[in-house]
Specification:
The structure is a single chain. With 179 residues, this protein is of the alpha+beta class. The chain is built from four helices and 15 strands. Strands 1, 10, 11, 12, 13, 14 and 15 form a seven-stranded mixed beta sheet that branches. It has a four-stranded mixed beta sheet with strand order 3-2-8-7, with no helix packed on it. The protein has a four-stranded antiparallel beta sheet with strand order 4-5-6-9, covered by helices on one side. The longest helix is centred in the last third of the chain and has 11 residues. The N and C termini lie close together (10 Å). The model has no long low-confidence stretch (mean pLDDT 89).
Amino acid sequence: MKKASEFIGLPVMSKVSGKKIAVIKDLVFSRNKFRILALVTYEGSVFKEAKIIRYKNVISVGKDAIIVNKENVIESAANIPEIFQLIKEKKKIIGEDVITETGENIGIIKDILIDEDNGKVLGFILSDGLIQDIMDGRNVLPYIYGITFGKDALMISNEIKTEFDKNKEYFKKLLELEQ
């Protein structure tokens, strides 16, 4: 398990040549598939297109580097319509509210927990406000079937909220196990 924020700034190394070929600038998430689709190595500009590495081309994600097979895995995002559209929308998951179906806000997404082996979202680290974070620590909402991304917020059912409240301390310990 790795936090999405821990990917940013990692160098990408070619397994074949041992050469550093890029540095991760951002991640591209699919809101429908709940997974990383690509790693952004160049965010693009007015005159140049964004460059990405599809997550399926990642061999491993270590503490200090991401390993890919060869240098030719860096592609233009414009050649992959799904990824290009997500980059163009500039829609970020970090900072979105988590709202129950009855309209209760249970926190703001501060980070995303990723299974580095396959890029799947395992859960979300939530903030309940600065004071609450200092007093109780941040909460963890594991990805459970039934969680959906709305246009501006992560939506959860009342049943998921009940499970979240009942197991808050247990979920927090999942983070401690990884440190």
